[in-house]
Amino acid sequence: MFRGAPRTRRVRHGATAVEALRIGVDALPIVGLISFLVGLVVALQSAYQLARFGANIYVADLIAVSMTREMGPLMTAIIIAGRSGAAIAAEIATMRVTEEIDAIYVMGLDPTRYIVVPKFLGMTMTMPLLVAFANVLGIFGGFLVSFLYLDVGAGAFWNQVGDALVLKDILTGLTKSIAFAWIIVLIAAHRGFAAHGGAESVGRVTTASVVSSIFWVIVADAVFSLLFYFG
């Protein structure tokens, strides 16, 4: 009896690691690509206006602050909501309609702890890392525009980024990312457990989970922006 408990804990730690790999590592390519393109586009759009005033160097300020405070966390959360949030909702909904969750109850296990907690911990650990990765790629996209299109030197650009960014900007984005991770997992799990019926229910639950997650992520982002702005 006492030998079984450590083994169970190891299995769940393993499940948390698997979820972290699925949510974090597997999402790196799409998060990196989209963040790079967003940084590139934002820099291009702002460069036209700033160039009229001879303020090309301030593209670095705009990209650095906007990516770390807003665009990085928000875009990453939307991607993860559509990718991992949908997968979590579909997995739990499928387990619900096929009565696997009932079987977990019968075995004396808590489905929330057994199914949801590893996903919750995995996303909580990986979302800040994904956001940091997105920030770097987004700022790099802005750097390419500044270096190739605006003739801003590499040293000047990165010095400007260092001057523009403060610790509060970085911590703001990382704090948001953790809150967004919780929102996505909890909504996906709630929708999944609420599934009933057949295969059609799984599709409805998955769609509802993604839509709800994106909506509440944007609402939370607005609330955080107000709190950090006035705070």
Keywords for this structure?
single chain, 231 residues, mainly alpha, 8 helices, elongated, disordered N terminus
Q: Give the terminus-to-terminus CA distance.
A: 52 Å
In total, the number of strands is 0
Number of helices: 8
Output the radius of gyration: 21 Å
Structural class: mainly alpha
Q: Assign a percent range to the helix content.
A: over 70%
Shape: elongated
Question: Poorly predicted ranges (pLDDT <50, ≥5 residues)?
Answer: 1-11
Largest sheet features: none
Tell me the count of domains.
1
- SSE string, helix = H, strand = E? HHHHHHHH
Q: Which band does the percent of strand residues land in? A: under 5%
Query: For the residues shown, what is the average pLDDT?
Result: 89
Please describe the topology of this protein:
Layout: H1 4-23, H2 28-51, H3 58-97, H4 100-106, H5 111-148, H6 154-164, H7 167-193, H8 199-230
